[in-house]
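Complex record, two chains
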Amino acid sequence: MVQHRTIGRLLFVSANYLVLTVLALLCILPVVNVLAVSLSEGYYVGAGLVKLWPVGFTLKSYAFVAETPEFIRSVWISVERVALGGALNMLLTVIVAYPLSKEAGQLRLRTLYVWLFVFTMLFSGGLIPTYVVIRELHLLDTMWALVLPGAVPIFNVILLLNFFRSLPKELEEAAHIDGATYMQTLWRIIVPLSKPALATITLFTIVAHWNEWFNGLIYMNMPEKYPLASYLQTVIVQRDISLTTDPMMMERLADLNNRSVKAAQIFLGALPVFCVYPFLQRFFMSGIVMGSMKE
Amino acid sequence: MAHKRWAREMPLHLLVWTGLAFVLVFCYGPMVGIVIAFQRFLPTNGLFNSRWIGFDNFRQIAEMPDTTRVIFNTVYIAVMKMVAGLIAPITMALLLNEIAQKAFKRTVQTIIYLPHFLSWVILSGVLIDILSPNFGIVNDLLGSLGMPHVYFLGDEKWFPFVLVGTDVWKEFGFSTIVFLAALTGINPALYEAAVIDGASRWKQTLYITLPGIVPIMVLMATLSLGNVLNAGFDQVFNLYNPSVYSTGDILDTYVYRMGLQNFQFGVATAVGLFKSAVSFVLISVSYVLAYRFANYRIF
């Protein structure tokens, strides 16, 4: 009986390792396949010989992408967007989360404020009215259309608010007794104590801005103003090559395998996320992501 | 006294108002813009000078042949995603929980969380490539197993299931986090007692682990209720094409095409309003339920 149970256990454990390995591979192999295609000679890609390892290793596709002016331009727009939008998001997250982390007794109207913010997570005007508002404010075709509408990320505010509340109250009380103003307390005590939480939220914000493609697509009439995510959406998903105007580039594209070029663009588009990921990943279990789940 | 209190708290109010200003313009502003649903809206006339037509836009929607199909697709796809999106991560968390080797567990977790952080633009680029009927690696595999090639993204019978499958593929890893956290919260003394009573690992899973995470399962299921009309715009928009509209077109993509491609602002806003209103009711109900039964609060 005992023997039987251990054999069963052994079988289960082996099967479990196998299943989990397969599932992990399922998550990563599609990306590996695309990477292999991007690094392979066009001829082998066309012949369907490239699976998970590059065949006829070459960087031609990457060289082509690096010389596509539209691609480079959109990368810079994305960088600008991440810097501006990320900074604005973080500033507003901190200055909104701090007052709202107070108890209702410490801040009048706190409950009303919280509901005004939370209500926007429950109900929205919808795509068309939002578009019309952006248009009426003359923000179309400007960077502001990409960074202002989501300037206060409510979900992050709630995460940070819960984190602020978990800090020992005595610190702030002590600071107040020593005559510190709210602003001094926030910037000299609360913010330095919240570095890990702020780092996590910053990384999430960066990834969100880098990945966001839809606003760029609808608020920019001119493709020259697309951030990278929107540019990739048109080139890779809509397969619209009208954005490539230079005849010299068209000629080179015909020479290369279009699939390799697309694969290179996909990989480059995801590269910053891969770079940030190891740092992001460290924080998952540390509790801040669970911030919304406690109480 | 009251006056003094206002003065003392003023810096805090100013901070809130700064954030509130953005929210008022960009979230509440569009809510005012909902009036478009009751107008024959002309962009040149602006929000309040367009002709008011009452419920005509809604009447038009009710008469359009596409409406029922789009609503059906939305609910069908969303509900399948909700169910699969709950079962897959729970199973995954249970399996991961049985792994004793820390390094292996961490590696698997690191890999399966990754797709969550890639956007649907990137992932659909990957999927269009690997699911291609001509050169895709998936059809290569099917071919070598002697099965016929499938045009996953072009076949209306397959498309909804491709959506559900790829959505689970993207999110199942990340969704395990909540359940893994719940699993670590189970009192180890329960397992020790069970072992003394001679319970096998399977029995322990059945009578300790599963009941231990039932509350969080119920909570996640309840909270997902609000998504019944959310079939996933980002995903569908980046994967669909006219040949799968019959089974893959959802409310959000419909609003987009109707509004921003055909410039039927009024009708598109009305469809959007329908979606927002129903979702609002569903989300509110799910939060009330979650609060009543799990004492869950978001702030």
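Note: Chain B has two domains: 1-54, 65-294.
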